[in-house]
Amino acid sequence: MSLLPSKLFPLHVQPLIPNSRIPHHYHILPYPRRPQALRVLCSRRSGKQRYPSEKKKLKYKLKENRIPVEENKYDGIWRLSNLGVPVHRDPGKDFLGISDGLLAAIAKVLKFPVASMLPMAAFTVVRKSFDARKLSKEPRFVYTVDIDVRKLLSLEPHTWDFIYRLKPKVGLVEHMPNERVSGDLISIINDVKKNHRGSPTRENGSNIGFGSEKSYKCPTTRKPKIAVVGSGPSGLFASLVLAELGADVTLIERGQAVEQRGRDIGALIVRRVLQMESNFCFGEGGAGTWSDGKLVTRIGRNSGSVLAVMKTLVHFGAPKNILVDGRPHLGTDRLIPLLRNFRQHLQALGVTIKFGTRVDDLLVEGERVVGVKVSDSSDKLQSNSQKLRYDGVVLAVGHSARDIYQMLLSHNMVLVPKDFAVGLRIEHPQELINRIQYSALATEVCKGRGKVPVADYKVVKYVYGEDGDPRSNSGEMSCSCYSFCMCPGGQVVLTSTNPSELCINGMSFSRRASNWANAALVVSVSSKDFDALSFNGPLAGVEFQREFERRAAIMGGGNFVVPVQTVTDFLENKLSVTSLPPSSYRLGVKAANLHELFPIHITEALQYSISAFDRELPGFISSEALLHGVETRTSSPIQIPRDIDTYESTSLKGLYPVGEGAGYAGGIVSAAVDGLYAGFAVARNFGLYDDSIENILGKAQSPGLVKY
């Protein structure tokens, strides 16, 4: 007996595809009519009904595939994007499966009449995010879902005709007949090695799998000795690639392993004892370890390299939801065990890890780096230094390693000043941000344990003209002001690496359960700003940072006390004598007039932008909002030029500058990706790998200029 009326499921429709593509089970369905000549039973979008961009994209895909869409639409994956599920029909932010509400959204796209008949096993959630924008009719969870067509047809044959009628729509519906499922980095390299040992070949003789048959070279002579300086994301991933491909790797870190580093940070917070080589900036995992652990990136969330990094993090202990969450983050509490697992894997590969070891100089012979001079990090006089020789040195330090920049200049290396941003960190009660963003839905947050995520924000304002008026006749953009490193449910922390300087940042744990939300509000600065304060040369940006860090330390009165001012007072340029709202910063705050901190044009840009942000987020200007000074280390103030293919320094052979400190990344994921590509480039330079990693993971992308 038929489950549904024949009008809903016209079993007499003959699929317009070769019989070889029809699944076996479909041949047993009843056909009251004999197969007829090819007929088009559903109209195609054409002319004005099809967007020009869509038409161009489809035409390009058809040309590349050289087969009609109708012939292969039953193969591979169909990806449905922008599927909205109202909050009241969704289980909540922590549920990553297929709910009844999501099935209804899928059925609507497929035009399938009974959503409950769709088999959940045929669908996979690729992305889930929360959209509470005021432009939306109601807050909703937004999904991207992949349909396994063969599984869908096997479990529910009645969907055959509905898949046939499915058409690509740019940004909404995409067909991927030959979608490759990428693995973590370790699996990818193992595939390369398997191909080297010999693997099945296609009929045309080409190798099946990643890379070419001769891409990996098993070392038969002495392994190349490579030093990786810095154990942040770029250093860790460069070490992983090189070690997996057979190099003799030594990882050198001036700070301590996460266990000891945590104790050193505890001593700083409780007893105000700053370990200059083991703190919020220096140590295993880099500055990102004690941060919000954001995994958002501007270099392509779905790119092969980003997916490889994310899956590698999962391999080492990150929760699998980072692969699906639209705005993934880890939090310090999850990063610490992950880094421990990463370290143990490197050691199992034979990597030598030297914690508490500072690189004081490069060993250079004939304009080529042949090693490094190191000493114990606690030895300020460098009295017991050692000279270690290596075939290559990967320089993966962070942007706070200012002594490294000075050392590079002593070797006449080219360092290019780079734009970055400076400003203040603003803190609100988290409940206030929840109300601003979610209105009545704010009660569903429950300090990170509720149905909807803890509210955050991202704002940007472009300021034109010297007077801060965007309607200035100059016509050129003077600067931009934007939120940076927003930490919902977080706290303000000290990131100074020198007792005479004061610099702050934000961090959160995985649940984001604190009472405060903080974000940096920063203004872009460039060489003209450095020149105005008579800072010149390659390290002008570094001196610019130090100037305001020293001013902030003086304004706070020393002992790591942070100068603060309420937002309302800052806008009115006054200093109230009333009590300050509470702050999450644990080393103490002191009321100060932050107008005295920056040059007037930076202060006015902040004032103008805060007023604009309040129009976008009504309530942003509040007597409960507190500005903290100062935030200066948003990105590296310099870039170290390198060859685009070999990643080798253009000034010194044998030196490979990578990551955020070298000016090629901005955040955990982009730094890890840069280290990944650098590791393959170095391996290729030393004969460990013949092919291009771009054949596996695609072309490397730059994060570009940070705007927000």
Summarize the model shown.
The protein is α+β, with helices and mostly antiparallel strands and 708 residues long. The chain has 18 helices and 22 strands.
Helix content: 25-40%
Low-confidence stretches: 1-51, 65-69, 198-214, 467-477
Give the total of beta strands: 22
Distance between the termini: 59 Å
- How many helical elements? 18
Largest sheet, in brief, is: 8 strands, mixed
Radius of gyration: 28 Å
Mean pLDDT: 86
Structural class, by secondary structure, is alpha+beta
Question: How much of the sequence is in beta strands?
Answer: 15-25%
Dominant shape: globular
Protein name: FAD-binding domain-containing protein
InterPro entries: DHPH_N, FAD-binding_protein, FAD-depend_C
Domain FAD-dependent protein C-terminal: 419-634
Organism: Carya illinoinensis (Pecan)
Describe the 3D structure.
By secondary structure, this protein is of the alpha+beta class. It contains 18 helices and 22 strands. The strands form 5 sheets. Strands 13, 14, 15, 16, 17, 18, 19 and 20 form an 8-stranded mixed sheet that branches. Helix 15 links the parallel strand 18 and strand 19. Helix 7 runs parallel beside helix 17 and helix 9 crosses helix 17. It is globular and about 75 Å long.
List keywords for this structure.
708 residues; globular; disordered N terminus; 18 helices; alpha+beta
Helices and strands in order:
Elements: H1 52-65, H2 69-72, E1 77-86, H3 100-110, E2 123-131, E3 140-148, H4 149-155, H5 160-165, E4 173-176, H6 185-197, E5 225-229, H7 233-244, E6 248-252, H8 258-271, H9 304-315, H10 332-348, E7 352-354, E8 357-364, E9 369-376, E10 386-389, E11 392-395, H11 402-410, E12 416-417, E13 420-429, H12 430-438, E14 460-464, E15 477-494, E16 504-508, E17 516-525, H13 527-532, H14 540-556, E18 562-566, H15 567-572, E19 589-591, H16 600-616, E20 626-631, E21 638-639, E22 655-657, H17 668-685, H18 694-697
Parallel strand pairs: 5-6, 5-11, 6-7, 11-22, 18-19
Antiparallel strand pairs: 1-3, 1-4, 2-3, 8-9, 9-10, 12-21, 13-17, 13-20, 14-15, 15-16, 15-17, 18-20
Helix pairs in contact: 7-17, 9-17
